[in-house]
């Protein structure tokens, strides 16, 4: 079999207007601030259990959201607070879920790794590495059968791209030409193991070649570029041409989870990567488009207020009723 083509071609989306880019910047900043407050709440023991932060990767989810339509369904792993917010779950509902409160998007029954909101087609966070990838193929199958025009987008990490279930999902999706975009966020680490120590390929989109799937790797730090590349991929899948596997090159600025001091990174690597912080890239572009200090300060203040409000809302919300513990265990 010849190698699959390496790009879906130019994006059907026009470049961002200043207004659109401002919106994307605000989204990324809100995710960043909500997670920084979540980190604080974790150390205060207001958030318990696992908590994996998305800080540094915000441009991927926000750029992807800008390329998707509401009818597109997302499914993902446990580093999903930012993805949930980008798909339309409110900061309040995310924070309250992290606090385990009844007002959370999963009514306090899920917690950090199991955010879920069917209202915005956010089909969840999952804690078992790679296990959600076949579910995305099922979602895509349903979307195709129901002729919804929707595309399934599945996020997963570089580590998850080593799981058997992932390869099987690729096989079926390509065979049935399902409308699914496999979006690998290669942040160069699977817990404490760097990608070159866990995989013979560094570009996980090359895994698509094994089944003849359209594939592409791109830099994921520039939100507008992510919007562009995911835009081309979802258009391809939506037109019925088949699935696409993408790899967004990204980086997480925090440890794997809140309990990881991240001592395994080579010295200086984090500092170097932080120079390419998605927020810095987009802020510089907005300034080049004419944004002044006062407008930026107002934006920061409004984000700060929204994140603080989410924290207060979560903190003062009621606990779930223990009598409801077994609800949602089985389908009604
Ligand atoms: C099947 C399975 N094996 C191992 C684990 C433990 N584990 C949790 S996250 C993780 C690393 C996954 O890394 P990656 O897919 O790159 O995602 P990232 O954390 O970088 O977002 C591992 C091994 C798990 N949750 N599930
Ligand atoms: Mg990783």
Characterize the structure shown.
There is one protein chain. With 332 residues, the chain is an alpha/beta fold. The protein has one domain (18-314): 3-Layer(aba) Sandwich (Rossmann fold), CATH 3.40.50. It is built from eleven helices and seven strands. The protein has helices at residues 18-43, 58-67, 81-87, 91-98, 132-145, 164-175, 195-198, 223-238, 269-274, 278-288, 293-316; strands spanning 73-75, 152-157, 180-186, 189-190, 193-194, 214-219, 244-249. The strands form two sheets. Strands 1-2-3-7-6 form a five-stranded parallel sheet, with helices on both faces. Helix 4 (91-98) crosses helix 11. It is globular, with a radius of gyration of 19 Å. The termini are far apart. Magnesium ion binds next to strand 4.
**Proportion of strand residues:** 5-15%
The domain tally reads 1
The CATH topology is Rossmann fold
CATH class: Alpha Beta
How many helix segments? 11
**Unreliable runs, pLDDT <50, ≥5 residues?**
none
Shape: globular
Strand order, largest beta sheet: 1-2-3-7-6
CATH homologous superfamily classification:
Thiamin diphosphate (ThDP)-binding fold, Pyr/PP domains
